Amino acid sequence: MSRKRLSTAQLQHYLCPILRTNTSKRLFNTLPSRRPRCPSLVPLHTIARCLQERNSTTSARHSDERIDQDKDASGGLVNEPAKYHGENKTKNGGKHAYRGVRVGRRPPPNAPDSMKVLPTNEVEDKLTKIAEVTAKLQNAMQPLYVLLRDRGIKPDVRHYKAIIHSNSDPEHGSSITVRSLLAEMEEHNVPLDASPLRAALLALAVHPDFILRQDVLRMLRSRWITLSEDDWHHVVAGLIREHQFELALDHLAHMGRKHIVVKDWLHSLLVYNLLEFNEFDLVRELMEARLNQGHGMKTEFWNNVLHAASRARHHGLTSFIWWKIVELKNSHPERIVCERVLEVAARNKDTRLQAAVEAILRHNGAKPRYKDYLGLTRGHLEDGDLFAALDVCIGIDRHVRMRCYRYIRAYCLTHEVHPLKIWNRLKDLKELGHTIPSESAMLVVDLCEKAAARDPFIVDDGVRIYKELYALCGKNPSLGVFNSLLGMSRTGRNAQAAAFFVKEMAKLGVAPTGETFEHLIFLCVKTGNFQSAYLYANDLSKRGFKVRNQTRKDMIRLCEESKNRDEWAAKMCEENKRQFYSLTDKQREKHKRDRDKYKARRREKRRAQSIAEAKEEEGWEDYEPSLTTPEDLEAKSEKLNTATAEAKDGSETERQS
Prior knowledge:
Residues 53-117, 584-657 are annotated as: Disordered. By secondary structure, the protein is mainly α. Among the domains are: 8-223, no CATH class; 590-616 and 630-656. It has 30 helices and two strands.
């Protein structure tokens, strides 16, 4: 059967490197198949006709004339001078006139003279090389200019394959152009063999179109053409770019059953797309399976994955990459990645990962930063390793150490850790050659002050700690340490220990402050030594220290409630009342508001506690709604109302007093 002879103008829609959106008004259907399909509603944005030869068809000239009429209204096309082709543009659109150039874009260069003098077979080889190696649409147009326009060669499968293959260009390629090229081949009886169809799969891997890909696969199947390994990769790549991850994973599993090795670029493409959708667990499974198959991973790839996982605070993927790749390959990630991994480890109580990251930082000569130490301390405390948290605080800057000690102090108070446990650990570190800062001793003394409320015998331990303090830290105690020791003695009501600490302060020449006198005054009042309390109060006022209003009120209350009141107690009570009631009306009003606020807070706390105790009884949550109220619930309700009324009466009595 003879084929229809094709003219050069029949490929003009596809041989211009500049897209013209107004060159065609028709709609393009998908390729013929066994099932009916709806035509596409998107008009074809084919490559504009730019090869204005003297033997151009009438339809092409009419199309160009219509574009010239509409270009001013659309604003998308402008006339470019013919200097891009080296010839002047004639009035009637003469030879080599370049028309239909988009605003702000220069047309591609014409074929160089060195290419025009080459034999036809060499130009054909050059076209094939450009299409398959570089895959640049603009570069592929130059040999096509020479073959089809200058030499008038009839277009065949090689030319179609080259232009389809060149549409894998990520910048200028298009799936719509691939669809129209395949339709053009079928229309003009150009054989659709394996080469253009496989080139179409490659182009659709870059510019995905699910319907067209299925049509191409159906045509390959109808021709009994099996998919090669590259074809499988191109199909999966198109599915990944369409975010059809389930289908892509199913195809990958099928490739595994066919013993097709997945290439690194496809695996990386799948992982990066999954990371965009925060599928970190699936990424970990894929990477673990990849490593188990014996495949390696590039440093740039796993570094990017580690960066994304640590930024998303995903512990599973972060720890997997660190132990399976970073540690085994002895790699050194960036500092910012290490900091994020430290934070992830601290949040998930992974002390082993914290120690590994810290070792990497030290090996790189990078000193951990402020937040790194905080993360390490929090991580060890959340893991229950108090000694490891103490070890982190030794040898770091003072301002960082004080912030870390806040977490340690809160942990010890919550878990009621005995201060001697921390003190003995500090002595062990001293024996190992570490320098113990004075802030560590301050931490232990502060814990002794808080623990004296529940165990008065802690005061004796505090005295022993004070005697060992100089040997451990190599410095005399500071004023803050003495104030904490006196506060411990005040809480434990141990006057002998307080007298010992006062003598030590005088011996070392440590000047007392208002806080020091307050501790001594309250200790004397609680132990019934009102004469010493009165003398300390006079000494406090003579030194110019101001006594807080709440402190005066507490002193008045303690003096009035004491059973061993004497003349010194009355004198001190009268002196404090005179100082307290000499306040201005504004100060009294502020003090009254503060008291009312604290009373209301305590009242709400007592009420909530009463309700919670009532709810803890058996059967509270077993109540089922009904028309009648069970007797046991009525009794519980009356008990709850009685407890609430007693709380209110108590608050009213306190307010009246």
